[in-house]
Write a structure and sequence with these properties.
eight-stranded mixed sheet, 6 helices, SH3 type barrels, four-stranded antiparallel sheet, Pdz3 Domain, 296 residues, alpha+beta
Amino acid sequence: MGRPWIVGTLTVLTCATFAGRAAGHAIAWRLEVPTVADPPAMARSPQTPPARPDGNRGLAFVDRNLFCSACTSRRADDPPVPGDGDVPATRLPLVLVATSLGAAPQASWATVRNTASGAEGAFGLGARIPGAGVVERIAGTFVWIRGEAGLERIDLLAEVATATPPRDAHTAGAAAGKAAPAWQAQVRQLDDHTWEVDRQLIRDLVGQQARLPGVRMAPATRDGKLTGIRVAYARPDSLAAGLGLATGDVIEALDGHALDSPDALLGAYAGLDGAAAVQVSVTRRGKPVELGYRLR
């Protein structure tokens, strides 16, 4: 007996195989992926040379005042700043008494005295000193001012340069009629370094209990320690000048006792009551000077 189902099965499998292949080709034709075109070539921008660093930017940073946001930096076309030694000392009757330096230049102050009029005041940067000029720089030991004569320097406690005008008959008569200082009758000069003086005048000068015309005394310090008494200002017709002292002198000792503490100053002041004479040790422009006073 034959098996006809085998032939039928093979026929069905063969037809199914061909039908599957035909269907696969049809689906592939329907879903054929289009070819992707090459992307357009991008235009290459021309290469620019690397930027060279600006050296002026570094100079601007160096010239800038880090403590003053409002200050302008120096420009390349600004005139050069003169050195300290290039500015001449002023010929005006001005003396720099003290300076106070702040964190910013605008916070600094200078105390300046006019020896001709006796006026004294504190001035900041840009302030005008009457009869002198505008303050342009404040340093520890000097001040720059700009007036009619240009840029000038006022040094700390420097002797005032005075010009002697020609004397005519009118000025000579006025000088002759000027009253002598009140202390002149109580002081007698014996030689270049010795005077005979009323002891109360020495008390007034050392203790500054009485306001002496034309004289200003101040403590002298070095490295934060007291070294004596400084003659901050002495007018030529003042008691200090009459006793041989000058602006800038530092009284360092009395009778060999150093004035290096407040107690030493008080002891020296008290010792004037019973002393017949006193020897004063002074430093003047870095050199020692001895002055003697006979007390009465």
